[in-house]
Specification:
The complex is a heterodimer. By secondary structure, chain A is an alpha+beta fold. Chain A starts with a helix and ends with a strand. Chain B is mainly alpha-helical. Chain B is 68% helix and 1% strand. The chains are: A alpha+beta, B mainly alpha.
Chain lengths: 656, 480
């Protein structure tokens, strides 16, 4: 009996001793590790300093190239211009960075609230976040638009001179030397099989040729992009810094396609993981499932992608060897999460330095306390620590009327619908004023809006009168208007289905208000909801009477896709409302081959007048986004085109 | 015992096959299709629309152009093909939906439609000729053989080069509807020449037909890959499914095992307490509180806990926990120990949100289990021996009372893998639950199938373990 308790005590003691030792070892390891980490940070800081020193040299060189480019037209030494008589198509950049006196050490933390990205290959992935938050900063183009001032003017990024010759069919680009592709990330470069990725890979004209070759490769899944290049005749790299793009005919779209072309790192995407080039015949198929697609994006822009941890975060760091102007903000961090409604708490917790609020959240956090006395304490939204900006986005919400349905074939009926659609009230009350009313398909403030177009007033009596003109009357006294839709048929009541995508609160309220107003003039509207993918399917099949949706457009939308009558006949076309108008077709076709800006403005205004008259859509509003920034974020200005939140000119005061 | 286990293991194979067949059928027959893009904002970009052509390439790469279970496409008749071509060309009264359907059917038919399309090149209706030439060009294009082979043999490369060259030639054989008749005639002649050269490819012997009937299908292709332990790549991200699954498992497993342990640690003592103090106010109070917790939906509690107890809280002294995520943004800079602490700190709220709901059921099981035992003879004997109440419950009754809720564990195995969708979504933890919901929304068949088949295996083994544990616990049960 005593022996047993003795044994127990010994075992217990030994156990305790082991635990104690384990604890000591753990503490020591922890100590050692923290010292290692600190050392690592020191070493990295040293490396960065040298990086910055080295980059200063590059900066001078780049500045030299810039003076040789936009401003005076003499070729740099060793380069011979092919068409020296042609003026440079590029204009100087209007917006410059870094802002004077701004900190160059700041970090901007922005949300990535759509869960893990599906990949980073810029030809295959065109999710808004990839384009806006990664490609916008990391990829390198020939030229960029002056997005903050006049988005129809281009300044050079990699190209310093562009010659447009042969009736605007040939574009010759001269590229700055010295741009390099970043080292790939999420790859262990110390493994012998990845040794081929080390070293410098310059960005050359070949990389632009490769990008377009991939778009045109029949096996590559870039169908939407490929259609744009149907008129491409050839693209050739004359040498590493000279690129010639030739089109079969003169077209406005070709300017944007040529100047905005992005490079794709050929050294990476043409090889498998061990650096063996893909056989030519399987290149396209392999490209679709390239081993690097979900690891990151290899870029050469103002920033490069420096880290990606699935489910956690994505990071970009300023590219100190970038050939253009270097922005003020040193790094971007995008925490990845999945519930976009959490953005507001993360903003409050200062885990984000910039974030977007939904209309409902904006009302709850900011608007409801405006001009009120008892505001909650501690909310950074109300004590000036966070500023909320309303940023105009390019795009518009609208109601589409299916012109192939007998109710909406008559433009008077469509106009009556717009009259019964209380746009102002809905914008003010439902969308809490976050938007600008529009009367046509262009962004507010664009010169293409015809100033003579007057908005159609909200006028139920006028709507009733218009419907009466179109032959609608209440013949059986049931309160609903009716009409024989085809001669000789019995009269049918004006009753249609209105399609709303599910889960869009504001759209649903809009539909309810419209329904109530329409009922007042004897039109019955039944609301029909469909989950987004089903909604799109019904659009493709043209299986709807009317619907509410939105288009995201550029500064100057390509009217062809949505408005040309040929697009109404192809399945899945974007002219799903069946808008067919000979005059519109003519304007659109002329626009396609007109490059002169004044001429274009006239034509675009004419088109604006035409759609305002025809009312194929009830144009509603161009949404404004509520972008909230913490006080350390400075020089906040918004671009006129997508992405409107473009942080290149911004700066962030670094934490002390 | 051994033969029993062996028999059960062997029986798993046909069960697994049957379940995979069921899953496959349900998935493929469910409405919706992979490749339709999701958009959160009711807005569409003009560039972003998936056009018909990309979608065709997509279907080809993932074998979605093949029939699901049995392939009878070699029986397609000329009249049927003509009807489809008429619909697709818009020459009939077909609606837009029917046109789309006809177009996709023709694209899926692929090579099987070639002889009929060739015949249609001389159809009296000119619109049909145009459409037939278009679809013939698509149908004639052959996929490459084994394109992902990292080291293609010279023979394979030669074959693929030949296919590629033939495809490139075919792609040139096109004309626009308003081209002059002479151009059209030239292209049509070239297409017919091509067909005469390769006519043999489109004649099927009885053996061919039989093989194709069973094996040229989605299901057979999937199983062919499965036998090589190849679960394929995700249809949306193009990443191989299995490594992603293993990466996701880390998050879900930590969360669910953690909350399971937490649940047992809390529920068992509560159950014991209720059993010992049966019928008292304490027992009723515990029951009431637990059932109140049970009836609170977890999405509500999770969101509320974030609003109250996270750093973003409006109440200054309640800002205790982070606003979600798995680890801090700069966790890479921390020591291992600090990283663990950081993860633990992040997991407090999600763990609570996952645990509180299961307490009621578990503690009830414990309570009933213990009550059964307390009335047993041997417990009475123990009491009669004069042992203290604590000794009686803790040493004699508890061990046996625990049995029912321990055997419950076997059945919980698949749930452990499944993860919790709601908690993962709200707290932004990139685990299995979120992944599977995302996959279902995107109709990502490969991901859904891989996850379901994994949990099938877990269920099968979980059931076996439960049965075996009965035998271990209760010597009266014997498996022979």
């Amino acid at each position: 009996m005593r022996n047993e308790s003795l044994l127990r005590a010994v075992i217990g003691g030994a156990f305790g001793l082991v635990l104690l030792l384990l604890g000591v070892v753990l503490v020591q390891m922890n100590h050692l590790e923290s010292r290692l980490i600190a050392q690592g940070q020191q070493i990295r800081a040293l490396g960065e300093a040298t990086d910055r020193l080295a980059s200063r040299g590059v900066k001078v060189a780049a500045a030299g190239a810039a003076t040789a480019s936009g401003l005076d037209d003499s070729p740099p030494p060793g380069v011979k211009f092919l068409h020296p008589e042609v003026p440079n198509f590029l204009k100087p950049a209007d917006t410059h960075w870094p802002p004077p006196g701004a900190s160059l050490e700041g970090t901007l933390i922005r949300p990535w609230d759509t869960g893990d990205p599906k990949g980073f290959n810029p030809l295959l992935e065109n999710s808004a976040y990839n384009t806006e938050l990664v490609e916008n900063y990391a990829s390198i183009s020939l030229a960029n638009t002056n997005a903050w001032t006049n988005p129809s003017v281009y300044h050079g990024e990699l190209a310093y001179r562009v010659e447009v010759t042969d009736d605007s069919k040939e574009f010759t680009f001269y590229l700055r030397p010295g741009a390099r592709w970043q080292t790939p990330i999420n790859v262990n470069l110390d493994e012998p099989q990845h040794a081929w990725l080390k070293g410098e890979h310059p960005v050359t004209a070949e990389d632009f040729v490769f990008a377009i070759e991939m778009i045109l490769n029949p096996q590559v899944e870039s169908g939407p992009n490929r259609n744009y290049y149907a008129d491409l005749e050839s693209i050739k790299a004359l040498d590493a810094t000279t690129l010639v793009i030739r089109w079969k005919k003169k077209a406005f779209l070709n300017v944007a396609l040529s100047l905005g072309a992005s490079a794709l790192p050929k050294f990476l995407y043409s090889c498998d993981e061990r650096g063996v080039p893909f056989p030519k015949e399987t290149l396209g198929t392999r490209f679709n499932q390239h081993w690097y697609n979900h690891k990151g994006l290899v870029g050469a822009g103002a920033y490069y992608m420096s880290e990606y941890t699935p489910g956690a975060k994505l990071g970009l760091v300023r590219n100190e060897s970038y050939i253009g102007e270097k922005p003020a903000i040193r790094s971007f961090v995008y925490p990845i999460y999945t519930d976009p409604t959490q953005t507001v708490i993360k903003l409050k917790a200062h885990e984000l330095s910039v974030g977007e609020l939904y209309p409902g959240q904006y009302r709850e956090e900011v608007l409801q306390y405006e001009n009120k006395k008892d505001v909650p304490k501690n909310s950074p939204f109300l004590d000036g620590r966070i500023t909320c900006h309303k940023s105009q986005t390019s795009g518009y919400r609208y109601i589409g009327w299916n012109a192939e349905r007998p109710y909406f074939a008559d433009k008077r009926a469509r106009r009556a619908m717009t009259m019964a659609f209380d746009r102002k009230r809905i914008l003010e009350n439902v969308y809490v004023g976050l938007g600008t009313l529009v009367t046509g398909p262009y962004p507010p403030g664009a010169p293409y809006n015809d100033p003579t177009v007057q908005p159609i007033p909200f006028d139920l009596d006028g709507a009733k009168k218009l419907l009466a003109e179109a032959g609608w009357s209440d013949s059986d006294g049931d309160g609903l208007l009716d009409k024989a839709l085809h001669p000789g048929e019995p009269r049918k009541p004006f009753e249609f289905r209105f399609l709303v995508p599910t889960g869009r609160k504001e759209a649903m309220v809009l539909a309810n208000i419209l329904r109530d107003d329409l009922l007042k003039i004897g039109v019955r509207m039944n609301i029909d909801t469909a989950e987004w993918s089903l909604f799109l399917k019904r659009m493709d099949e043209k299986n709807f009477d009317a619907y509410v949706a939105a288009w995201v457009t550029g500064w100057e939308p390509d009217l062809f896709q949505i408005w040309h009558s040929s697009q109404a006949d192809i399945p899945k076309g974007s002219n799903r409302i069946g808008f067919r108008n000979k005059e519109a077709d003519k304007i659109i076709e002329t626009l396609r081959s007109t490059l002169d800006m004044d001429e274009r403005t006239k034509l675009l205004q004419a088109f604006h007048r035409l759609v305002a008259e025809e009312q194929p859509y009830s144009f509603f509003q161009a949404p404004k986004a509520v972008i909230c920034t913490w006080k350390e974020v400075e020089n906040v200005i918004f671009s006129k085109t997508f992405p409107n939140v473009n942080a290149l000119p911004w700066s962030v005061r670094a934490a002390p | 015992m051994k033969t029993y286990i062996l028999r059960r293991l062997l029986l798993m194979i046909p069960t697994f096959f049957g379940i995979s067949l069921m899953l496959f059928l349900i998935l493929n027959l469910a409405p919706g299709r992979p490749g339709a893009t999701q958009n959160a904002d009711l807005a569409q970009t003009m560039r972003g629309e998936v056009t018909q052509e990309s979608y065709r390439i997509f279907r080809e790469q993932f074998h979605l152009d093949k029939p699901v279970l049995f392939n009878t496409r070699f029986t397609v008749t000329r009249a049927e093909v003509r009807e489809h071509v008429r619909d697709a060309a818009g020459a009939s009264a077909a609606t837009a939906a029917e046109r789309l359907h006809a177009q996709e059917t023709l694209e899926d038919l692929g090579a099987y439609a070639v002889p009929h399309l060739v015949a249609l090149l001389h159809d009296p209706e000119p619109k049909l000729v145009d459409a037939a030439a278009y679809f013939l060009r698509l149908a004639a294009i052959r996929p490459l053989e084994d394109p992902f082979n990292p080291q293609p043999s010279p023979a394979l490369r030669a074959r693929n080069r030949a296919i590629d060259a033939e495809n490139a030639g075919l792609r040139l054989l096109r004309f626009a509807p308003d081209d002059p008749d002479a151009t059209k005639a030239e292209v049509i002649a070239a297409l017919e020449r091509w067909y005469r050269e390769h006519e043999g490819r489109f004649v099927y012997t009885a053996g061919d037909k039989l093989r194709r009937f069973f094996f040229d299908t989605r299901f057979a292709t999937y199983w062919r890959n499965l036998l090589r332990f190849d679960f394929g790549v995700s249809l949306t991200s193009r990443e191989p499914v299995v490594p992603t699954l293993i990466a996701k498992l880390k998050y879900s497993l930590t969360l669910s095992v953690g909350s399971l342990v937490l649940a047992y640690l809390i529920a068992v003592p509560l159950g014991v307490l209720s059993a010992v103090k049966k019928g008292t106010r304490l027992d009723r109070g515990v029951t009431l509180v637990l059932f109140m917790l049970y009836s609170l939906p977890s999405f509500f509690v999770a969101t509320l806990s974030l609003y109250w107890f996270s750093v973003g809280s409006n109440i200054a002294w309640l800002r205790w926990f982070p606003t979600g995520g798995w680890a801090s943004r700069d966790a890479g800079e921390l020591t291992t120990l600090a990283q663990w602490a950081d993860i633990a700190w992040h997991l407090v709220l999600p763990m609570v949100a996952m645990t509180y709901g299961s307490l009621a059921a578990l503690s009830r099981y414990m309570r009933t289990g213990l009550l059964d035992v307390i009335q047993a003879d041997y417990v009475r004997t123990a009491r009669a021996k004069g042992l203290s109440e604590r000794w009686v419950i803790g040493k004699h009754a508890l061990r046996n009372g625990l049995l029912p809720i321990l055997t419950l564990l076997g059945g919980l195995l698949p749930a452990v893998l499944g993860g919790s969708v709601i908690v993962e979504y709200i707290f932004g933890i990139p685990g299995m639950g979120l992944w599977v919901v995302d996959a279902i929304n995107q109709r990502d068949y490969n991901v859904i199938l891989a996850i379901e088949l994994f949990s099938t295996i877990l269920v099968l083994f979980g059931l076996l373990l439960t049965d075996l544990s009965y035998a271990l616990v209760d010597p009266r049960i014997r498996f022979e």
